Amino acid sequence: MFVARSIAADHKDLIHDVSYDFHGRRMATCSSDQSVKVWDKSESGDWHCTASWKTHSGSVWRVTWAHPEFGQVLASCSFDRTAAVWEEIVGESNDKQRGQSHWIKRTTLVDSRTSVTDVKFAPKHMGLMLTTCSADGVVRVYEAPDVMNLSQWSLQHEISCKLSCSCISWNPSSSRAHPPMIAVGSDDSNVMYGGKVQIYEYNDNTRKYAKAETLMTVTDAVHDIAFSPNLGRSFHVLAIATKDVRIFKLVPLRKESSSTGPTKFEVQIVAQFDNHNSQVWRVSWNITSTLLASSGDDGCVRLWKANYMDNWKCTGILKGDGSPVNGSSGQPGAMNTMVGSTVQTSQNALNGSLATDCLTALLSLGLTDTAALTPPPPWVN
Predict the structure, then answer these.
(1) 81 pairs with which residues across the strands?
(2) Fewer CB atoms inside 10 Å of the end CB: C or N, the chain?
(3) Any idea what the Cα angle at residue 250 is, between residues 244 and 256, rounded to 5°?
(4) SS3 state of residue 347
């Protein structure tokens, strides 16, 4: 069993995303009430809302934190066709808000002609870069040339994916052997079109992103996608949330020295689980990439882990109200998790993509403590 405690989120509409900062001590939530809330964890383990403000003129789909090296910076994206960058400012000594923090909008990115469905910061070794994807099928990569001036962002790349985009994930590898890489998922409902996941790789010669791979076996709408932390591996691991949970391994094939095109990959599907018996809305890795969490319309978060033979299996099932899950008596005990206050009521009220209200909260909030259950590999200091 694990202990479930609820947070009175006080959002006036569905919660679509929950995001932790780098250290796991701060949390941001966003909602169809057009607001973002920031939460701080106290020494006693309780979460307190320290900021809440209207961010967009439409539903806010995603919110994400920049690496703390760049300050306390958030990005959000919305149905209103924009993405926004926010920075926390602490009041100056001569300010009446002395010592108090408040969030200010640094920029609004208005290039999309349709709903902006996801926003992600690039790995910090690439500098302060931000990627958005939109229902118009375009992925846009922005860069802040001066990290001290977050009001200036330049559009560096536009990648046309042909299909409506729903989610993006950067490959976090900092190895020189791995060029910058972005995975893009599509929620296009037409199953006749295969390849709902596309991989784009940066080419130093052309200074553009080119398609390196299409996962043709993914034919259903993709709701979330996540590269696992790399930790020095020569290959890449990608988790996908669609009508089930899938884990792919992308093994780079040896390049000829004269080749200037994108890397070719051997694509292997290493796991596929339909245990949720429903749409899967979020997938998220722990920091050592040894544990994957998924959330689905069954109202549960399921934890997946591979053994030394690389066979993946379910190691835990978390339910928002703390009640036992049938068949989970052998699961790890004493898991502390925090879940959004809407978990109970939303289960009955929601359907379709809006079910991310409770499920995202459950997934993201459950990860903080469960990640600590998995010891890091011996090569991680």
Answers:
(1) none
(2) C
(3) 160
(4) helix
Tokens (6 digits) for 381: 């200091």
Tell me the whole-structure pTM to 2 decimals: 0.82
Contact 86, 102 (CB under 8 A): no
Which residues have a Cβ under 8 Å from the Cβ of 136 and sit 6 or more positions away? 112, 113, 114, 164
Distance between CA atoms of 76 and 157, rounded to whole angstroms? 19
Least confident of 59-63, 141-145, 348-352: 348-352
From residue 378, alpha-carbon distances to 30, 209, 303, 369 in Å are: 37, 35, 22, 21
Evaluate whether 79 touches 115 at the Cβ level (below 8 Å): yes
Local structure of 32: helix, strand or coil: coil
Residue 118 DSSP code: E
Contact status, residue 82 vs residue 112, Cβ threshold 8 Å: yes
In angstroms, the CA 271 to CA 260 distance is 32
Residue 297: how many CB atoms within 10 A of its CB? Answer: 19
142 near 154, Cβ under 8 Å? yes
How far is it, in rounded angstroms, from Cα 165 to Cα 195? 12
- pLDDT at residue 231 above 50? yes
pLDDT at 211: 93
- Strand 197-203 relative to strand 181-186: parallel, antiparallel, unpaired? antiparallel
Asked if 60 contacts 76 with a C-beta cutoff of 8 angstroms, the reply is: yes
**Residue among 182, 169, 279, 268 nearest 225 (CA):** 169
